[in-house]
Write a structure and sequence with these properties.
The protein has helices at residues 10-26, 46-57, 76-86, 117-121, 134-140, 146-152, 169-182, and strands at 2-7, 30-32, 63-68, 96-101, 159-163. It is of the alpha/beta class.
């Protein structure tokens, strides 16, 4: 069973985080290794923040699930957690990333980036398209954190997106397994500076 860190907006989306953890435990899918990173000082440098999150908060996890609600993209701690999950550190290596769009964002689009995901997770879809323009991702995913969109555009980054209402135990297990297996080969885009304030 894989150790998963869940990144989310605590004020708005705690209920969904709790439900996901319960679902994962009840179905023996993953272990929750989430820790609140809200007490990290803004006075630290980007590098100090990244090291602290990667080596103290994410160290035992290998897959990060980002829960996207209406305010998630504006939260600095979520951005720090995504960045740190994607960073290949000397001590703790990069994690696989899965995004779950919550019902509040009213988005039915999804993205399959791992081998077999299209057939196993989204068998109802027989016509897939490749998106190469940022504007189209932003249209489809208006609440998505910018760093996630950067990596949806990056060939080889392997970030998958699923709506909350399409989840079941088999699909979530499959997605976590694929994210875990592909994490070392993910070529993440980390060029965006870390968010320094909420907006």
């Amino acid at each position: 069973m894989h150790r998963v860190f869940i990144s989310y907006h605590h004020d708005n989306d705690q209920w969904y985080k709790n439900e996901l953890v319960k679902f994962g435990k009840d179905n023996n899918i993953f272990e929750d290794w989430s820790v609140d990173t809200g007490d990290i000082s803004d006075d630290l440098t980007d590098e100090q923040i990244r090291v602290k999150i990667r080596d103290e908060y994410l160290k035992e996890s290998s897959v990060t699930i980002v829960l996207v609600g209406t305010e998630t993209k504006h939260r600095k701690h979520v951005d720090w957690e995504i960045y740190s999950s994607m960073f290949d550190g000397k001590i703790n290596k990069k994690s696989g990333i899965i995004v779950i769009n919550l019902p509040s964002v009213n988005c039915d689009y999804y993205t399959a980036s791992h081998k077999g995901e299209k057939e196993y997770v989204f068998p109802e879809n027989t016509k897939w398209c490749t998106i190469t323009e940022r504007e189209e991702f932003e249209r489809r995913y208006p609440y998505m954190p910018d760093r996630i969109i950067d990596n949806l555009l990056k060939t080889g980054a392997h970030v998958s997106v699923i709506p909350w209402n399409k989840l079941n135990a088999d699909k979530l297990q499959y997605m976590i397994d694929r994210a875990y297996e592909d994490r070392a080969n993910c070529d993440y885009d980390l060029s965006r500076p870390m968010r320094r304030r909420n907006s």
